[in-house]
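Dear Dr. H.,

I hope your travels went smoothly. While you were away I took the liberty of generating a structure for the chain from your last submission, since the lab meeting agenda had it listed for discussion. I wanted you to have the full record in hand beforehand rather than looking at slides cold. The sequence, exactly as received, is reproduced here:
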Amino acid sequence: MNLDSIIFDFKKEYDDIFISEIMGEVFIFRPLTKYEFEQFMRSENMSDNYKAEKICDLCVLYPKEYDFFDPSYAGIPETLMEKIIGNSGFSDKDFVLNVINQYRKSNNDDPDRKIENMILSVFNQFTVEDIKSWNIYKILDYYSRAEWIINNVRKDYNNPNND
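The corresponding predicted structure, in token form, is as follows:
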């Protein structure tokens, strides 16, 4: 299986994945959750090396069977942990501000996100994940319903497409 198909498969399962090459070895990883990060950082019983190995073991998706406790090159777990923590948004406030500004811009400029957001605002029983699993006909059906409700029933809502 080539790397492109591996990445494609992971993107179906994980919202965000990252690729890094260290000492000629390719690693694909997911970000830490806030809960995971806090658990590792609060733990005073773990050495920094052990934290690095455990974080890599937890977040690295490929290669699946990589042994971070006995890496092929010294320093790989520590280097990779820094990348995981950085891409998880826990080490650089400017990174976080940049990402949130990208999402804000996307909410204003991306028609797909506008459609999803309008559906979510009217039909609060759905999640973004639900909508992303729908085909275009269902999305447009619910979007047109949301738009109608906003324009005809719920005058307290604002239809951004009428501005």
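Two observations you may find useful: The radius of gyration is 21 Å. The mean pLDDT is 91.

With kind regards,
E. W.
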